[in-house]
Amino acid sequence: MRTVLVVEDTPSEMELISGYLREVGYTVISAMDAAEAMNKAVQQKPDAVVTDVVMPGKNGFELCRSLKKNPATQKLPIIICTSKNQELDRLWGMKQGADVYVTKPFGRDELVRAIKSVVG
Asked: d(Cα 64, Cα 71) in Å, to the nearest integer?
């Protein structure tokens, strides 16, 4: 079974994303901020990360950079899932190391497709 680390500081969004993923068989690890996400990514070795951009402390773009710089997590696929829907945001996210960029609002199928595109 595949495991996905979901990084989201809004409880309702965390519940929505986690629910979508559990419905289709993924195990979900949750983190409320980038620091917690880095620790869990290194310790629990998920198959992918879904992260918001706007969070307290480090944002999702900074988290991407940190994950890609760390030898233990550099190959980890990252899906940015955010309300930042400008083309410049998307390009910046991909430049920071994101593999897929999904904008809110999104449906379950769109999110699942994004994850399956990187982990199967």
From this structure: 13
Tokens representing 96 are: 């920071």
Q: What is the CATH number of the domain that holds 77?
A: 3.40.50.2300
Q: Which of 7, 12, 53, 26 is nearest to 112 (CA)?
A: 26
- Domain enclosing residue 86, as ranges: 3-119
**In Å, what is the CA distance from 23 to each residue of 20, 62, 74, 109?**
5, 29, 28, 11
Query: Cβ distance 33 to 55 under 8 Å?
Result: yes
pLDDT in tens, 50-79: 999 999 999 999 999 999 999 999 999 999
Instruction: Kindly state the tokens that stand for 104.
Output: 């809110």
Strands, DSSP E only, in 20-112? 27-31, 48-51, 78-82, 100-103
Domain count within the chain? 1
